[in-house]
Structure formats: structure tokens, C-alpha cells
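Course exercise 7: structure representation. Students receive a sequence record and must write out the corresponding structure in C-alpha cell form. The form below is the worked example handed out in class, using YXWGXW repeat-containing protein (98 residues). Read each field label carefully; the graders check that inputs and outputs are placed in the correct fields and that the protein name is recorded exactly as given.

STUDENT ID: A-19
EXERCISE PROTEIN: YXWGXW repeat-containing protein
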Amino acid sequence: MKKIIGNLAIALIIGVLFSCNGHYRFLIGQPPEHPSVIMPLSPGDGYIWIGGEWYFNGNSYLWRDGYWTRPRDGIRWVPGDWKRNHHEWYYNPGRWRK
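STUDENT ANSWER:
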């Protein structure tokens, strides 16, 4: 019973930490290459392109294609980027920011 409660407490703490953070950091050996992608035509005036980006599926990074969308009032899109921390790389996903 103590082991179950301990495991639940750890899971709860990890869940709270990740839910408070606006993005996740996954350490890897080296950033993967961006695939070659052909950007489709804009669906109309006033749309912005949100470039494709990497996401972590629990085992590895996978590529998510970009898409057209209308900008949101008062905020701008910040593309995701790779950062280096000592000898490891991590990816900050794109996000909307005021």
C-alpha cells in the first residue's frame, strides 16, 4: 500500500510540474534534420503560415507538417527552436505569445 501511495505521489508531482510549464523539454543527443516540405498555397488573405515542427511521442521525435491559420488578436506565433544545454539538445515547441 505504501508503495502504491508513493508511486501515485510521484506521478502527481510530475503531472503538476509538466502541466504548469507551457512547453516540454526532451533531451536528445543531436537535433534531427528538418524534412524538405513544400508549403501549400495560402487559403486566402489574412492567413499566416505556422511552420512544421518536431514533437516527442514518448519514444522519439516525429515531424508535424505546417499549416495555414488566421492570426490571433493581440498575440503572435513564436516558432519552435532547438536549444543546447551542456552536451544535450532539447526542443521548445512553437507557441502563441503576447
